[in-house]
From TrEMBL:
It is a peripheral membrane protein. The lineage of its organism: Bacteria, Bacillati, Actinomycetota, Actinomycetes, Micromonosporales. This is succinate dehydrogenase. It holds the Pfam family FAD_binding_2. The keyword Transport applies. Keywords: Cell membrane, Electron transport, FAD, Flavoprotein, Membrane, Oxidoreductase, Transport. It comes from Actinoplanes cyaneus. Residues 513-647 form the Fumarate reductase/succinate dehydrogenase flavoprotein-like C-terminal domain. Its cofactor is FAD. One of its GO terms (cellular component) is plasma membrane. Gene3D superfamilies: FAD/NAD(P)-binding domain, Fumarate reductase/succinate dehydrogenase flavoprotein-like, C-terminal domain, Succinate dehydrogenase/fumarate reductase flavoprotein, catalytic domain. Its EC number is 1.3.5.1. The gene is sdhA_1.
Length: 648
């Protein structure tokens, strides 16, 4: 691919930590080959972990349990309020408790296929292997997974699979898992092995002699800036879906930690791969700052439909059965309502584009539980989904036991993130990235219930085995707070804060964020085109210029200042948004969450081009000429050969 006006191409990036040989033994062999650090030496080593969600919380607790000294950071007032607490539906594991044909290999197969053949086989196989250990770990911690009458753990199905392998705790799986990880973390805080710093935001990465050696943080209550040093840094800072302004993510989720590392040399992979979740409560007006997810688990029993006729404004109950189109069951008979998220989202968009959407503005489809209530009884439905139904009613004022829910796709998860090798190490030595913040295991599409699995596999099992290999190559020279690189990183943060406060323009930070979100959703959302993406890049560049001349950030730096916090995050989102559009523009194929209108089959399904695009796109930060550099990591498939994904 030639250089273009928008990007240049550099050398390929290679995963040097990747093991070869039979896939079943790769992880075992990598663990055995990794160097160890003896327990007495671990006490002398410090690891910074940014983030206390499932990935960061589990990583910090486990590293401390191993004997390392850990410094943990989060911007919430308590580590257990990380966004992971919002996860509803469940977590996958290849336990095969249902004896329905599941296995490590099947989970591996489903996940590679579900990711539309854009993830590494080795990583995904390891994920499937570790999935079974996660459940044992969580049960040992007392996580109250749902159980069947006989006492065994219960399972349900999620999209893209034909087996029941999703473990859950009603609609609060993330909350219960996070309480487990948090208790493990608290134990280590109590023992003095973890130093917890809540309400501290990482604003810069410190690199000394080419290695990640610390971070610059701002105390969000007092505004105090400090430099924090360590032997290695782990980023577990979550996803960047809020670049779209409206998403199902918690309002605070942002890209700053990974973006600051990207600016300092860490490659950012597949930024355009965004997961749009099909079952969210439709937007109700411009006052909204957030969208609400209705868990995918609801598609186990809810049936998705729209009226057959266009512009049908009758109430759902007045539309007879033969005038309804259960379009997922019709188009995809073998997976029906449980097709993967990208397919279900696009199908919803298509029927709404045809004028068959329901509710205000015609941007909604029905998710109907009438059949399930008739079949199972209201009590059984309540036991499975009660809290979700209640949440829906509280938000919409409609009772889903009586009338079908209205749902519409919304931004939910970002598969892209910092590029990491098999050891979860970024292109900056000593900088490791876990959970949603890295790009590793989901390819172009994430199957439901697999983010929790990946975050916990990374934190409890993978990182604690691979980081030793890096730390064993120490001891690293002690870094002083007066080191030039440390002073410079701190100065960069102070200058940036001073700049935000000095502009004193006439537009709020939120207004910029909302405008960026609108551009991203319009041109880099569910469907992308060459023309739209080119336009979006121009619009974002203009927005960036306007931001740095017209933004108004009231207040001071040395106090609680939420506008200042948001300004930093939105400035980074604007740059990320441009990179996402460039990534989407360069990928002239449709795959997973990336649907290019120019690349579809005659019946409107996504059309991949494996001959040209079977790689992870890892980007180097914009050069002085304004163009980022593309480094390709070629993907090889020895076990699951790329085929057209068909759920029909
Ligand atoms: C509504 C909803 C429901 C979901 N349900 C499911 C589900 O059922 N199953 C499933 O598998 N997945 C689900 N997901 C996805 C899943 O919840 C997330 O992908 C996952 O929890 C991310 O975990 P994490 O540890 O990587 O990041 P997070 O939980 O987002 O944690 C990020 C942490 O980083 C900290 N942080 C970030 N930036 C900074 C900074 N600059 N300085 C200091 N600290 C920082 C934050 O304070 C926080 O502690 C859901 C997502 C949503 C939005």
């Amino acid at each position: 691919m030639a250089d273009t006006d928008f990007w240049t191409e550099g050398e390929p990036v290679v995963d040097k930590a990747a093991p070869d040989g039979p896939i079943e033994t790769r992880w075992e062999r990598r663990k055995f080959a990794a160097k160890l650090v003896n327990p007495a030496n671990r006490r002398k080593l410090t690891v910074i972990v940014v983030g206390t969600g499932l990935a960061g919380g589990s990583a910090a607790a486990t590293l401390a349990e191993q004997g390392y000294h850990v410094k943990s950071y989060c911007y919430q007032d308590s580590p257990r309020r990380a966004h992971s607490i919002a996860a509803q539906g469940g977590i996958n594991a290849a336990k095969n408790y249902r004896n329905d044909g599941d296995s490590v290999y099947r989970l591996f197969y489903d996940t590679v296929k579900g990711g539309d053949f854009r993830a590494r086989e080795s990583n995904v196989y390891r994920l499937a292997q570790e999935s079974v250990n996660i459940i044992d770990q969580a049960v040992a911690q007392g996580v109250p997974f749902a159980r069947e009458y006989g006492g065994l753990l219960d399972n349900r199905s999620f999209g893209g699979t034909q087996v029941s392998r999703t473990f859950y705790a009603r609609g609060q799986t993330g909350q219960q898992l996070l309480l487990g990880a948090y208790q493990a973390l608290e134990r280590q805080i109590g023992l003095g092995n973890v130093e917890m710093n809540a309400r501290h935001e990482m604003l810069e990465l410190i690199i000394v002699d080419g290695k990640a050696r610390g971070i610059v943080v701002r105390d969000m209550v007092t505004g105090r800036i400090s430099t924090e040093l360590a032997d290695a840094v782990v980023l577990a800072s979550g996803g960047y879906g809020n670049v779209f302004f409206l998403s199902t993510n918690a309002k605070g989720c942002n890209v700053t930690a990974t973006w600051r590392a990207h600016r300092k040399g860490a490659l950012f992979a597949n930024p355009c791969y965004t997961q749009i979740h099909p079952t969210c409560i439709p937007e109700s007006g411009s006052h909204q700052s957030k969208l609400t997810l209705m868990s995918e688990s609801l598609r186990n029993d809810g049936r998705v439909w729209v009226p057959k006729a266009q512009n049908d404004t009758r109430r759902a109950s007045d539309i007879p059965e033969d005038e309804r189109d259960y379009y997922l069951e019709r188009i995809y008979p073998s997976f029906g309502n449980l097709v993967p998220r990208d397919i279900a989202s696009r199908a919803a968009k298509n029927v709404c584009d045809e004028g068959r959407g329901v509710g205000p503005g015609g941007l909604g489809v029905y998710l109907d539980f009438a059949d399930a209530i008739n079949r199972l009884g209201r009590k059984a439905v309540e036991a499975k989904y009660g809290n979700l139904f209640e949440m829906y009613e509280r938000i919409t004022g409609e009772d889903p036991y009586e009338t079908p829910m209205r749902i519409y796709p919304a931004v939910h998860y970002t598969m892209g993130g910092l590029w990491v090798d098999y050891d979860l190490q970024s292109t900056i030595p000593g900088l490791f990235v876990v959970g949603e913040a890295n790009f590793s295991d989901h390819g172009a599409n994430r199957l439901g219930a697999s983010a929790l699995m990946q975050g916990l596999a990374d934190g409890y099992f993978v990182l604690p085995n691979t980081i030793n290999n890096y730390l064993a190559s120490g001891p690293f020279p002690k870094v002083s707070g007066n080191d030039e690189a440390v002073v410079e990183a701190r100065r960069q943060v102070e200058d940036r804060i001073a700049k935000f406060l000095s502009i004193n323009g006439d537009r709020t930070v939120d207004s910029f964020h909302r405008e960026l979100g609108h551009i991203m959703w319009e041109y880099c959302g569910m469907e992308r085109t060459e023309e739209g993406l080119t336009k979006a890049i121009g619009l974002i560049r203009a927005l960036k210029e306007e931001f740095w001349t017209r933004v108004k950030v009231p207040g001071k730096g040395e106090e609680l200042n939420q506008n200042l916090e948001k300004a930093g995050r939105v400035a980074d989102f604007i740059e990320l948004g441009e990179l996402m559009c460039i990534d989407a523009l360069h990928r002239r194929e449709s795959c997973g969450g990336h649907f290019r209108a120019e690349s579809q089959t005659p019946d409107g399904e996504a059309l991949r081009h494996d001959d040209e695009f079977s790689y992870a796109a890892a980007w180097e930060y914009f050069a002085a000429d304004g163009r980022p550099t593309l480094h390709k990591e070629m993907l090889e498939f020895e076990y699951v050969h790329p085929s057209t994904r068909s759920y029909k």
